[in-house]
Amino acid sequence: MLSGKVAVITGAGPGLGRTLAGLMVEEGARVVVSARSRAALEETAAAGGALAVPADVRDPDQVQALARTTVDRFGRIDVLVNAAFPGTHRKNVLDMDPDYLELWRSAVETATYGTLLACRYLAPYMVEGGGGSIVNVTSLSSRTGYAGRSDYATGKAGVHLLSHCLADELGPLGVRVNCVAPGWIASDALTTWMETRARDEGTTFQTVYDHDVDRMALRRIATEEDVARAVIFLAGDGAKAITGATIDVNGGQLFT
């Protein structure tokens, strides 16, 4: 599906980014992975057979260097996946002190401004090469608000409308822009969160798990591979008539 294509993944640390990099290599792509943490990035690159290029997506100079390094090495860019994780610090607006407000701004900048910068500096190489695909990883949290998650939700929601704008701007030039919006993803972090909820609610992990999964139409939590496969579909030629769209990968937890 991606044979011969050159793909860049931002936010490619542990978890989804690492899984996606490995699967893209298996699909025949030449993959460049990028993140702020060099140690985690090198683990991702080693596990997936990709090239590691550290970069902070909020820094225009570093994003431009990522684009140049990719083109110098592989000659072009066909696919860009923006998957930088802005983090969430779970605080009510009335409890936000000045230090937290800076964390809030940083989270939104990572998600929305970071996505914009990556598109600004990598998309021209796609246009030059005759076209390409941008896939932005957003979240179920950008579809509906939850208390204490306004930083994460706002940043990811901004990416949805940014993607619509860029799809309209870049479509005539042969570049498609779409989103994948995961819900919960089966992981150690999710398990820890459910265990914490169980303790807070005075119940068991299994009770919390069953309650949450029973709200999903498919009665299961999506895996990293489930989300990665949706990204790969949108990145490939099988989706060549799709732009400005969002694929929700949440097991039927939320219909949009």
From TrEMBL:
Domain of life assignment: Bacteria
InterPro entries xrefs: NAD(P)-bd_dom_sf, Sc_DH/Rdtase_CS, SDR_fam
UniProt record similarity statement: Belongs to the short-chain dehydrogenases/reductases (SDR) family.
Protein name: SDR family oxidoreductase
Organism lineage string: Bacteria, Bacillati, Actinomycetota, Actinomycetes, Streptosporangiales
